[in-house]
From TrEMBL:
Alphabetized InterPro entries for the sequence: Carb_kinase_PfkB-like (IPR052700), PfkB_dom (IPR011611), Ribokinase-like (IPR029056)
SUPFAM superfamilies registered for this protein in UniProt: Ribokinase-like (SSF53613)
Domain of life: Bacteria
Family annotation (Pfam families): PfkB
Name of the protein in its database record: 2-keto-3-deoxygluconate kinase
Keywords: Kinase, Transferase
Origin organism lineage: Bacteria, Pseudomonadati, Pseudomonadota, Alphaproteobacteria, Sphingomonadales
Domain named Carbohydrate kinase PfkB: residues: 9-312
Native source species: Pelagerythrobacter marensis
Length: 340
């Protein structure tokens, strides 16, 4: 029997090149930097395509080797790169100093005036990308880039509305970006989340959106936050979040939670020892969630796969995870010895 090909998820947002010194060597004293391709929405596209859920990237990159590297990286995961435009401007960069022992990790952005941040909605083929799509995935990073980012995010949502494509919005709050301009994140994010069917964000994101504090980390407080968000945003169908406890830079505990209007599920905590790279774990989570959401899975199954993807990503260097569906199915959060 032929399994019909699922409609693609369109991932819209900026791609970045990440430069990082080895753990333990501060950037200011580094002599060599490792390079990797990232960008929250692109990370989701790569993970979904690796899981055999078709994904299409919608972005603008410069016509230079860094832009080509971004495109080639996604293509190697099987992402449809036909709606990646090229435009004037530079590749956005960020520097990542990994946490090392007692020293916390740090991100330094160098992304202003990038090809994406300078783009106007006319530079992107929103309608073409969304034609036949099953979902638009975007995040709070695009509007955080500045007034042009807000315009791009609004244009993406308008195109999704016109094409009748539901929206998944990942809060991805980046304080450093919002604080770099005269922004009003609450007002802008409220407007954008108002269009979404799925929100990826925890009780702190919801506190920011509603201007009401949901402090405390217990499941009851999270349910209260989710119910307040469902009341404030009539289009929302599902809210997903991780609950992370950081013991040290290398030891984290992680659980996943899915709230719908009439049910919810929170997984048990997985203790992750020897974290290799936590960047992109939220995007791996999003991919595991969306994979199952599009299959019509239960809240429990969505939370389980989202958690498995996020936990696996902690053991992988770089921003992206290219896990296969078989690897996801076989994943045992307890880890293990070499398979041979
Ligand atoms: O910071 C940005 O603007 C980026 O897009 C770079 C990274 O690829 C994502 O931040 C990863 O996101 P997480 O999965 O939440 O760790």
């Amino acid at each position: 029997m032929n399994r019909s090909v699922p409609a693609p998820v369109v991932c819209f947002g900026e791609m970045l090149a990440r430069l990082s010194p080895p753990a333990g060597l501060p950037l200011a004293r580094a002599t060599a930097l490792d390079i990797a391709v990232g960008g929250a929405e692109a990370n989701v596209a790569a993970a979904l395509a690796s899981l055999e859920q078709p994904a299409r990237m919608l972005t603008v990159v410069p016509d230079n080797p860094l832009g080509r590297m971004a495109r080639a990286t996604l293509a190697s995961a099987g992402v449809d790169t036909g709606t990646i435009a090229t435009g004037p401007g530079r590749m956005g960069l960020y520097f990542f100093e990994p946490p090392a022992g007692p020293v916390a990790g740090r991100v330094t952005y160098d992304r202003s005036a990038s090809a994406f941040a300078e783009a106007s909605p006319n530079d992107l083929d929103f309608a073409g990308a969304l034609d036949g799509a099953g979902l638009l995935h975007m995040s709070g990073i695009t509007p955080a880039l500045g007034p042009r980012g807000v315009e791009l995010a609004r244009a993406a949502q308008a195109a999704a509305r016109a094409a009748d494509v539901p929206i998944c919005f990942d809060g991805n709050y980046r304080a450093n970006l919002w604080e770099a301009w005269d922004s009003n994140p609450r007002e802008i994010l409220r407007e954008l989340v108002g269009e979404a069917r799925i929100l990826i964000g925890n009780h702190r994101d919801i506190s920011l959106l509603l201007g009401e504090t949901f402090s405390g980390d217990g499941p009851d407080r999270r349910r209260e936050a989710a119910e307040a968000a469902f009341a404030a945003f009539p289009s929302l169908e599902l809210i997903a979040s991780t609950a992370r406890h950081v013991e040290t830079g290398q030891i984290h505990r992680l659980a996943a939670r899915v709230d719908r209007r009439d049910d919810h599920w929170q997984t048990g905590e997985v203790r992750i020892e020897g974290v290799i790279d936590r960047i992109g774990t939220g995007d791996a989570f999003a991919a595991g969630l969306l994979l199952r959401y599009l299959e019509g899975a239960s809240a429990q199954e969505m939370a389980k796969s989202a958690l498995a993807m996020a936990v696996m990503k902690h053991g992988i260097t770089g921003d992206m995870i290219f896990a296969s569906r078989a690897e996801l199915d076989a994943f045992d959060a307890g880890g293990g010895d070499v398979r041979r």
